[in-house]
């Protein structure tokens, strides 16, 4: 009898993969909106960094504008206020990293310890709500609370017999206000990722620890924290990639003439020189400079994380 020729592995594997792909077509359909978002709003706009090496003229277009090489980067480094803007950006990012980054982790650990599901859902809803409030409203609330004319906090201070404090016009208070606003608005929303990571912890680990006589603190230290350690490292690495990003809207709404020395960051400088001054090539070069610094920080942090035995981002 004639035997049918056997298929090699290189012929079988592609067929199996095609069958699995067709079987999971609905999952690929769900992926399409996200993929389109990144292609349209993240990858295609990257072609715009070309103008950072040009003296861009909107009427001439990208391909007909004059090439100037690294001139805009040299102008940035020679700008008198460059080091002030750089230091303000780094200091604000580090303050957020030190004070804001741990808060969602602490909140997630606290919520994970709540056994009454209804109460936990109510607390989660309350701490999530500020995320949906715009920075304009947050700034308005801050002015109502801390203003020297009619501010609720200053009214209590005056009634207590002290002098009113210029929270909004003092350089000493500006950074504290920015970090406090970020914590109030985004800390609750940041707990979502950590709660999702905690939901994957095997309950039998806690049961075994109880049998061994471990207290709640011991369970948190030896079971809960190790379960989300990789998530913490990944988010920390990604956050370091935005070391020079502080967000425009929040800073712009709280900034005034008396706090420029500590509050002027790259975003506000780009607004003044790019949108108001019309220096599109120069501000694009600033954006590229920030992106390169962020990329270097991610690569360095990822290598450091792997040295400590973590998986890292890639």
UniProtKB/TrEMBL annotation:
Keyword list, A-Z: Membrane, Transmembrane, Transmembrane helix, Transport
Cellular compartments annotated: Cell membrane; Membrane
PROSITE patterns: ABC_TM1
One Pfam short name: BPD_transp_1
GO cellular component: plasma membrane
Every ABC transmembrane type-1 domain range: 86-301
Gene3D superfamilies reported in the protein's UniProt record: MetI-like (1.10.3720.10)
GO biological process: transmembrane transport
Protein topology in the membrane: Multi-pass membrane protein
Transmembrane residue ranges: 27-50, 90-114, 126-146, 187-206, 227-244, 280-301
Annotated InterPro entries: MetI-like, MetI-like_sf
CDD domains per the UniProt record, alphabetical: TM_PBP2 (cd06261)
Family to which the UniProt record says this protein belongs: Belongs to the binding-protein-dependent transport system permease family.
Name of the protein in question: Sugar ABC transporter permease
Natural source organism: Paenibacillus albiflavus
């Amino acid at each position: 009898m004639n035997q049918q020729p056997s298929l090699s592995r290189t012929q079988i594997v592609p067929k199996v993969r095609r069958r699995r792909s067709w079987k999971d077509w609905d999952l690929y359909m769900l992926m399409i909106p996200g993929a389109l978002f990144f292609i349209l709003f993240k990858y295609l706009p990257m072609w715009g960094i070309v103008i950072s090496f040009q003296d861009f003229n909107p009427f001439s277009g990208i391909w007909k504008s004059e090439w100037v090489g690294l001139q805009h980067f040299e102008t940035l480094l020679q700008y008198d206020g460059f080091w002030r803007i750089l230091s303000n950006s780094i200091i604000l990012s580090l303050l957020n990293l030190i004070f804001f980054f741990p808060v969602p982790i602490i909140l997630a650990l606290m919520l994970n310890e709540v056994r009454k599901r209804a109460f936990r859902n109510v607390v989660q809803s309350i701490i999530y709500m500020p995320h949906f409030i715009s920075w304009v409203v947050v700034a308005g609330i801050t002015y109502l609370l801390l203003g020297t004319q009619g501010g609720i906090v200053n009214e209590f201070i005056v009634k207590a017999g002290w002098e009113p404090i210029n929270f909004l016009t003092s350089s000493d208070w500006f950074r504290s206000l920015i970090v406090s606003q970020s914590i109030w608005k985004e800390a609750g929303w940041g707990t979502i990722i950590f709660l999702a990571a905690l939901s994957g912890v095997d309950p039998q680990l806690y049961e075994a620890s109880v049998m061994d006589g471990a207290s709640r603190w011991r369970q948190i230290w030896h079971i809960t924290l190790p379960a989300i350690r990789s998530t913490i490292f990944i988010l920390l690495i990604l956050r370091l990639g935005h070391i020079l990003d502080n967000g425009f809207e929040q800073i712009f709404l709280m900034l005034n003439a008396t706090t420029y020395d500590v509050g002027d960051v790259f975003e506000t400088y780009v607004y003044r020189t790019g949108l108001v001054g019309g220096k599109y090539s120069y501000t694009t070069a600033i954006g590229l400079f920030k992106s390169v610094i962020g990329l270097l920080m991610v690569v360095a942090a990822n290598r450091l994380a792997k040295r400590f035995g973590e998986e890292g981002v890639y």
